[in-house]
Amino acid sequence: MGNKIITFSHEQLDHYQDCTFFNKKEILKVFKKFRNLAPDLVPLEMTTPEALKIQIPKERIIRLAELIENPFAERVCESFSKDGYGNLNFEEFLECLSVFSEHAPRDLKIFYAFKIYDYDGDDFISETDLRLVLKDLTKNELTNDEHAKITEKIIEEGDIDNDGKLSFLEFETVLKRSPDFINTFHIRI
Question: How much is the pTM?
Answer without folding.
Answer: 0.92
